Amino acid sequence: MDWNSFWEGSKTLPTYALMIRAVILYIALIIATRLMGHRQVGILSGHNYLVAAGIVSLAATRMLNSESSITSGIVIIFVYAFVNVFLSYLDIKWPRAIDRHATILMKGGIILRENMLDCHITIDNLLGQLRLKGAHNLSEIDTVILEPYGKINVIKKPEALPLTRKQMNLPHKISAIPTILVYDGKIEEKNLHSLGLDHDWLMTKLREKGNINLKHVFLAMLESDGTVYMSM
């Protein structure tokens, strides 16, 4: 195989060469995504979205077109990534100058029509997003905020909020992150010890669930309320 044609593209590239080019580009995408950090994956601002769309489009073109240069594709992918990191840095320093800011769509139970027009949000868009948040009645809502990354946050009126344990004068309930204790028949020793538990306690809980053979347990997890979940 001609390596110059492999990197710069050719009509006569064999199938295995196209497969290798696709793998290289995919690895480059993974590395670029790691460089851009969690923000790129979890919080998409305007420039984050443009970079993500541009990189994916570029990689797809290079993967499908055997005549395209994979070298230039990799260079552009990393240039996009570093530009995105730089803009994210500027966004932290001067958020109002680089990215959008949060916009109030409803305040005091009143829909702010001008803000909705500025954000190009229709009443159907708003109602659909509110339903996804479990807010079906506008009369129960005090404030609606459109966040810079496109998500809607809802603040209900005090009388529409559910009762809390504090309001009911109930004792404080300790909550914790659900933790895996057994996976595929093997005890997660680190997790077990971090909770201050031992093998005797674990086996007692498993016996309460009707199991005495650890090898048959696919998943055992300590849930936030102290319950042990087990699946065979």
Automatic annotation (TrEMBL):
TM annotation in the entry: 16-36, 48-64, 70-90
All copies of domain YetF C-terminal, residue ranges: 96-222
Key word Repressor present: no
Membrane topology summary: Multi-pass membrane protein
Main location: membrane
Location relative to the cell: Cell membrane
InterPro entries, A to Z: DUF421, UPF0702_alpha/beta_dom_sf
Keywords: Cell membrane, Membrane, Transmembrane, Transmembrane helix
Top-level taxon: Bacteria
Coiled-coil region(s): none
Keyword Ion transport listed: no
Family: Belongs to the UPF0702 family.
PANTHER family per UniProt: UPF0702 TRANSMEMBRANE PROTEIN YCAP
Record-given protein name: YetF C-terminal domain-containing protein
Species for this entry: Clostridium omnivorum
